[in-house]
Amino acid sequence: MISILSQERLLGATLGAFLATAIVYKERRNVYASISDSHSKIITKSSEPMFGKKFRSDLAHLWNRGVDKTLGPVIVSLSSKGW
Fold first, then answer.
1. Dihedral over Cα of 63, 65, 69, 75: its sign
2. What is the pLDDT of residues 11-63, one digit of tens each?
3. CA 68: distance to chain centroid?
4. Is 81 helix (H, G, I), strand (E, B) or coil?
5. Is the pTM of this model over 0.90?
6. Structure letter (DSSP) for residue 51
7. Contact yes or no for 60/67 (Cβ under 8 A)
8. Is residue 7 pLDDT above 80, yes or no?
9. What share of the chain is helix, strand, coil (3-state, %, to 5)?
10. Distance in angstroms (rounded) separating the CA atoms of residues 50 and 81
11. How many CA within 13 A on the CB side of residue 37?
12. How far apart are CA 65 and CA 68, in angstroms?
């Protein structure tokens, strides 16, 4: 049979290990939660459009006009050759 002193030491070591494990688990959970919160804030900020809807529409229109003016003669030339 194990002596009372050995039993107390074993019980103390076991309870200490459980307590340390619980503290480490809780702290890791807090760290991961704070990282997740800061990451979601960054994603929320970056998902908002940088410019307004009218500006983007005007920019797309200008882009299309520029492409038409630049590549229009090439398209006409290829169309006349039957491509």
1. positive
2. 999 999 999 999 999 999 999 999 988 877 776 665 666 778 889 899 999 99
3. 38
4. coil
5. no
6. S
7. no
8. yes
9. 85, 0, 15
10. 44
11. 6
12. 5
Q: What angle do CA 48, 50, 51 make, to 5 degrees?
A: 120
Measured at the CA of 18, the angle between CA 14 and CA 21, to 5 degrees, comes to 140
Instruction: Check residue 44 and give its pLDDT.
Output: 62
Q: Mind spelling out the 3-state secondary structure of the chain? A: CCCHHHHHHHHHHHHHHHHHHHHHHHHHHHHHHHHHHHHHHHHHHHHCCCCCHHHHHHHHHHHHHHHHHHHHHHHHHHHHCCC
- For residue 12, CA distances in Å to 6, 9, 17, 21, 40 come to 10, 5, 8, 14, 42
Alpha carbon separation from 40 to 10, 46, 48 (Å, rounded): 45, 10, 13
**In this structure, which amino acid lies at residue 3?**
S
